[in-house]
Amino acid sequence: MDDLNPSPVLARADALMQRRRQNAAGEFEDFPVLTEVISPDDDIPILSDAVAPEPERTDDLVPAVLAILADELAERVRTRLAAEIPCLVEAVLHSTLAKLTAELSQGIVGTTEDALRDFIAEREKLARQQQR
């Protein structure tokens, strides 16, 4: 395309700009519609004529993205566990200690009752033997 023979699109754009300059005295005209600027006869590519970009290679991208996601997930799990493990251990220890305390208490009470029964039984036996 040389400068002496401009394309129809450029010629129309120049004509539109000339009209706008002439109306700069204060008169406003309606804005041109797209069909006034570009006619169907112009050889302007439309979107369907455009070449689609080449898709990215997903075989390289997917492992890289998965590795990044795995690292982020691992870090979040580490952070959450570091924050919550002390509370979880404390809760388990309280629960375990409560159970152990209850079992120990029951064991002490049972053993004490057995020892008292045996003591009383032996004293009664001795008292009967002395009465004979």
Q: Determine the number of helices (DSSP H or I, runs of at least 4 residues).
A: 3
From the spread of the alpha carbons, the general shape counts as rod-shaped
| Number of strand segments | 0
* Beta-strand content bin: under 5%
Tell me the helix content: over 70%
Order of helices and strands: HHH
Identify the quaternary structure here: single chain
Main beta sheet: strand number and arrangement? none
Q: Distance between the terminal alpha carbons, to the nearest Å?
A: 143 Å
Poorly predicted ranges:
none
Determine Rg (CA atoms, Å): 48 Å
**Which structural class should the secondary elements be placed in?**
mainly alpha
Mean pLDDT: 79
Write the layout of secondary structure elements.
Blueprint: H1 8-22, H2 34-37, H3 58-131
In short, what is this structure?
The protein is mostly helical and 132 residues long. The protein is 70% helix and 0% strand.
Structural notes for this entry:
- The chain has a domain at 1-47.
- Helices cover 70% and strands 0% of the residues.
- The protein has three helices and no strands.
- The longest helix has 74 residues, at 58-131.
- It starts with 7 loop residues before the first helix and ends with a helix.
